[in-house]
Specification:
Layout (H helix, E strand, L loop, with lengths): L5 E8 L3 H12 L4 E5 L12 E3 H7 L3 H4 L2 E13 L4 E7 L11 E4 L1 H14 L3 E4 L3 E7 L6 E7 L4 E9 L6 H9 L11 E10 L2 H7 L7 E8 L7 E7 L3 E9 H7 L3 H10 L1 H7 L3 E11 L10 E2 L2 E3 L16 H21 L9 H8 L1 H8 L3 H7 L6 H13 L7 H13 L4 H11 L4
Parallel strand pairs: 1-2, 1-10, 2-7, 4-12, 10-17
Antiparallel strand pairs: 3-6, 4-5, 4-6, 8-9, 9-10, 11-14, 11-15, 12-13, 13-14, 16-17
Helix pairs in contact: 1-4, 1-10, 2-10, 10-11, 14-15
This protein binds flavin-adenine dinucleotide (FAD).
Length: 441
């Protein structure tokens, strides 16, 4: 090691929710830690919409009184989009309109992550933004091989007792580390989705009127259906302060197979009449695209090696069921990684065995329980394409036909509606698909 190389307790690569939570929790435990973020600032390259408060509040008490929140979510909605029709449920609670707002908030990630990273810096983390980690420094051979630091673009190097990889889903350094340190991969290969999102500006009063919201309340809506035909995907709309977040996510493999592009998918979603009714007259403020790891529990490999831990999306911890939870899983994994690093510092043992409590705590946590509950979701989504367009279209059509007003009697209208619904729907397939769909909820 050259004289001028900096050596600290820990280096965290990636300033998203996982990396910032790790670095902040480490600093709170008096570890000397460097956090490296390649964006001009944390969040500059991030997207996503909802942030859940339960884990964040453990790191920063009453975080949401200080964090840059767009709107708390007081109402939610789930809708099936048919061809020019829709059927949906809209639900909420008065309870959700009051603190802590069901711990669910719409944020602008570029502002939220930036704030979160500054909180970590205030707690003592050395925050290095605009720097790309290109690889790790390794020492030793075979089973004794360990990570001992990072190489940054431009030849700068830092050393540490432990490196935590929090790169998110496009985890290039993590992939190299898995190969270098012989880290065991998951039972199934990781599967990726791509998300595209627009932020569409709309004046506050107009937005609240359009979504039937009281001042500063918010709504989050999820959609599947015809715009996602031949894709394993869906869309969402979240209300921000003076903007609407409208986005679509789909498995990359399904896009390749159906020769559809992310832009075309988002356009088809935005053109659906019910979606159009929410976003019309808005001004496009921002466009972003991001990958998500959707392989679930079976795609998660080992998360520790000598001198190394992997957290957040880089570890594949996203829950892609109906709940779509990634940020709080990322933060929670970061908290356990920080605890493991603090214990390793006490014992002076940063080997895989010395860091093992990270995986032990994670496997005992709610994060793991939820991932286990939804372990079959990736398989269900891949093998049940009818869930994404045929059934949404059928159900929307059924309701439209059921409530059709014409000169026929209700008995005739209902009989015809049911007949149309069942046409072309093999009974066995329908029952099987509905049973499979239960696993997503
Ligand atoms: C369209 C979409 C919608 C979503 N909606 C939700 C939602 O509603 N609720 C929810 O909980 N989750 C949602 N998610 C998932 C959520 O965004 C992720 O699970 C979460 O951001 C994971 O955090 P992370 O810190 O692991 O990774 P990221 O947030 O991706 O952060 C990784 C960071 O590392 C940096 N980085 C990467 N490589 C390097 C490197 N080599 N050197 C330096 N820096 C590096 C990146 O710039 C980035 O800032 C959504 C995701 C998408 C794409």
């Amino acid at each position: 090691m050259s004289e001028e190389q900096v050596k600290v307790d820990a280096i965290v690569v990636g300033g998203g929710p996982a990396g910032v939570a790790t670095a902040l929790a480490m600093a709170q435990q008096k570890l000397e830690v460097i956090l490296i973020e390649r964006g001009e600032y944390s969040g500059a390259k991030n997207m996503g919409g909802l942030v859940y408060g339960t884990v964040l509040n453990k790191l920063i008490p009453d975080a949401f009184k200080k964090a840059p929140i767009e709107r708390p979510v007081s109402r939610r909605g789930i809708a099936y989009l048919g061809d020019g029709k829709h059927i949906g449920i809209d639900f909420g609670s008065e309870e959700w309109t009051k603190p802590p707002f069901n711990n669910t908030y719409v944020v602008n990630r570029s502002q939220f992550d930036r704030w979160f990273a500054k909180e970590a810096e205030a707690a003592g983390v050395s925050l290095l933004e605009g720097m790309v980690c290109e690889d790790l420094i390794y020492e030793g051979e075979g089973a004794a091989k360990k990570a001992v630091g990072v190489k940054l673009r431009g030849d700068e190097q830092f050393r540490a007792d432990v490196v935590v990889l929090a790169e998110g889903s496009n985890a290039i350094v993590t992939k190299k580390a898995v190969a270098e340190l012989g880290i065991a991969k998951g039972a199934h290969p990781q599967e990726y989705a791509i998300g595209v999102k627009e932020i569409i500006g709309l004046p506050k009063a107009k937005l609240e009127d359009r979504f039937h919201l009281a001042a500063d309340e918010g709504v989050a809506m999820d959609f599947v259906g015809v715009p996602f035909k031949n894709l394993v995907g869906g869309g969402f709309i979240y209300t921000a302060k003076e903007a609407i977040h409208v986005g679509a996510v789909a498995r990359i493999q399904s896009m390749v197979d159906s020769k559809r592009s992310p832009n075309e998918m988002l356009d088809a979603f935005k053109k659906h009449p019910i979606v159009r009714s929410y976003i019309h007259d808005g001004e496009l403020l921002e466009y972003s695209a991001h990958m998500l790891p959707e392989g679930g529990l079976d795609a998660i490999g080992e998360l520790t090696a000598n001198g190394l831990m992997i957290v957040g999306d880089a570890a594949g911890l996203l829950n892609m069921s109906l709940y779509k939870e990634g940020t709080n899983h990322a933060m929670e994994s970061g908290m356990y990684a920080a605890q493991a690093a603090a214990e390793a510092k006490k014992s002076g043992n940063f080997s895989k065995a010395g860091l093992a409590s990270y995986e032990t705590k994670l496997r005992q946590s709610v994060v793991w329980k939820d991932l286990a509950k939804y372990a079959k979701v990736p398989e269900v989504l891949n093998n049940t394409p009818a869930l994404f367009s045929l059934y949404p279209d059928k159900f929307a059509q059924l309701m439209v036909d059921y409530f059709t007003v014409n000169e026929q009697s209700k008995a005739v209208i209902q009989k015809q509606a049911l007949k149309k619904f069942l046409a072309g729907l093999p009974k066995f397939q329908f029952v099987r698909d509905m049973l499979r769909a239960k696993k997503v909820f």
